[in-house]
Amino acid sequence: MSETTSTHYCFYHPSVETELRCNKCGRYICPKDAVRTPVGYRCKGCVKEQQDIFYNATALDYVLTAVITCPIAFIAALIVPRLSIFAIFVGPIVGIIIAEAIRLATSKRRGRYMWIVALVCLIGVTIIPLWSTLEFVLGGGLIFMPQESGGILLSVGLDAIYLVLASGTLMARMRFGK
Ligand SMILES: [Zn+2]
Ligand SMILES: [Zn+2]
Prior knowledge:
- By secondary structure, the protein is mainly alpha-helical.
- It folds into two domains: 1-54, no CATH class; 59-176, no CATH class.
- It is 62% helix and 3% strand.
- The protein is built from six helices and two strands, in the order ββαααααα.
- The chain has a two-stranded antiparallel ribbon.
- The longest helix is centred in the last third of the chain and has 31 residues, at 146-176.
- It is elongated and about 85 Å long.
- The two termini are 49 Å apart.
- The mean pLDDT is 89.
- The site of one zinc ion has 8 residues, from loops.
């Protein structure tokens, strides 16, 4: 490797020639591995390291996330079917309440998968009280009670809209919120 022309090879792909370097550790990386950051191109290793500092949640924070989300989501799931059309407005509010409660309890620490835990808890807990209605509908119950079908379908639909809005708001707050 003592030629006059100095060719450099990608740290991750030893057969790929490249002149691009990570501006943190100085390794040669091909454009495929380069991650554009606000401070320039960096290698995957350096980006991961940076994210690990950014995501500082402990295992306890994940437990707290579940412990906080479940009761709030459960109470909301009991109230929402009584609200009829107002369920739509309650969705985003519930999402915000859960996200803020988690933020306070975990002292604003971040976890890479914390939003997934919260989302699974929210959806799981919301579906439990709905389950009997859903089973009834799927089991063909509406055929035997056609006079009730409109009301039941409307309430299932509103609950579904509530859940989508609550989950969407919660996810947006936890993933992208400050
Ligand atoms: Zn690097
Ligand atoms: Zn490469």
